[in-house]
Amino acid sequence: MEKLSMDALHRLSVDDFRQQDKMPVVLVLDNLRSGLNTGSVFRTADAFLLQKIVLCGITAQPPHREILKTALGSTESVHWEYLENTADAVRALKEQGFRVYAIEQTNPKTWLQDFEPQAAEKYAFVLGNEVDGVEEEALALCDGTIEIPQFGTKHSLNVAVAAGIVVWEVVRKIKAKSS
Fold first, then answer.
1. Which CATH superfamily is domain 17-178 in?
2. Chain mean position to CA 36
3. Fewest CB atoms within 10 Å of the CB: 95, 96, 130, 153?
4. What is the pLDDT of residue 169?
């Protein structure tokens, strides 16, 4: 077994990344308190060629030092925008033809493993504040909620971890249907 060098990985340049066709997926960060979480979400968006990230409310914006620490340059490749109000972001995305889902614990909900994205659709996923989750006004505007099954004693995942799990599952399913 040989560990691959950075050269062997054939990573895209920032310019090449910007020219690539993106996955029809947007992440909406609803009032995240931690710039470290925001930076980690940027890296996930870069890794899976997501269309963009929408930063809302108190969510830090690049070039915030905590974001830069965990984003490792992905703030230069991933398109992002800021909107003060998360509900306005949800409305705007729906007007652009996105299906919008909150990643939240609600009743009713769709379990992540049961969510079946369609290759021809565009999706946005709202990830909420580390303490309070997705704000009620934005939640009410979503097309539904998706919950990640959990089996331990805690009742939540770190928001950046949740983003990674959801993005991997959605991208995996979209790519499977596209091929």
1. SPOUT methyltransferase, trefoil knot domain (3.40.1280.10)
2. 14
3. 153
4. 98
Angle, CA of 125, 20 and 25, to the nearest 5°? 10
Residue 162 pLDDT > 90, yes or no? yes
DSSP class of residue 4 equals: P
Helices 159-178 and 35-47, axial angle in degrees (round to 10): 10
Tell me the residue type at 73. Answer: G
Q: Inform me whether the pLDDT recorded for 15 exceeds 90.
A: yes
Residue 127: helix, strand or coil by DSSP?
strand
Helices (H), the chain: 14-19, 35-47, 65-71, 74-77, 86-95, 136-141, 159-178
What's the whole-model pTM score?
0.97
Least confident of 3-12, 46-55, 125-134: 3-12
Structure tokens at 154: 């805690």
Give the chain's length.
179
What is the residue extent of each domain of the chain?
17-178
